Every structure is written in structure tokens, then in C-alpha cells.
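Example 3.2
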Amino acid sequence: MTLPTEVDERFRAAAASEGLLDVAYDVADSPIGPLLLAASGRGVCRISFDPDPEAALDKLARAHGVRILRSPRPVDELRHQLDDYFEGRRRDFDVAVDTSVLPAFQQLVLEELARVPYGEVATYGGLATRIGRPRAARAVGGALNKNPIPIVLPCHRVVGSTGSLVGYAGGLDRKRALLALEGAL
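Structure, written as C-alpha cells:
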């Protein structure tokens, strides 16, 4: 049985507003391709460059719980802020992020990453030093490679020790495009 679109949308919105979801998600268009946006009750928990929900939903279910539903409303603010960012009207994001399911080291790295300003770059070694682990550049790279919330937590702003563009889970073309948007290239 197929529900009318209006009924389906009301159901999804009601489930989200009543707190019945572990994660709500939607797919948004962007200049760097479609993005899967997901939020838990604590905040944004995933931005995926792969808009195919199957792989992302499996990861989200393992991390946050199985009550996952495509419901646009909980990610609307993120979508608006991303639109503003891509149109050059926003430099910083003002959305809650949920990194609670990540290991403590990765949380520490992502907290420091969030301090790298718009239009600037840092190195993996520089981030390692800033978290008090100067010999952990590779571990920092590994933590950033698994960043579940790219763009908002701007791992595209981290470059190799020589300034070269390396290691971006979304691909170097996207990294280059994001840095060019910010005027960092």
C-alpha cells in the first residue's frame, strides 16, 4: 500500500517532533555533489558524500540505534547553513554536533579541528602538536579520515606538511573545491 505524499510527510515530521527517532536524515544537493545529512537528538551526526543511504544507514544504526527515518525537518537548519556556506554567506556553522559515539582521541582531534579558521589551513603534525601529541600526526590523519561530519568539522582545511593536498575521504577534487571556496588555495 502506498501512502499519499502528504500523509507520509506528516508521519515523518510527527515521528521526528515526538522524539521517536534515533536519527533523522535527508539528502541535499550541493555544488560538490549530493550530501546525506543526518542528525540524532544531540545534533548533526553524519554528513556523507555518498548519498546512497544504505551504507550510511547501516553505520548510523550501529552507532545510534535502529530507529532511522528519512525526515527532512531535523536537518533543515543544517541544510540552510550549508547552502549559505556554499553561496559564500557563511564562514562558521552554528549547529550542534553529536560526536558522542566516537573514541575519545577522535573527539579530541575533531574539537581542535573545529578551531581551524575559515580560509586557513593546518597540517596533521600541527594539529597533533595542538592536542599535546606532537608525534601523533598519523593518528590525527586516521581520526580525520573517519570524520563523520566533514565540512562542518572542516577536515578539508588540513594539508600535508609540505602544504600538499592529501588524504580527504571525499576525494581531493572536493577538498580542492572547498579550499578554493574559502580562498585558502
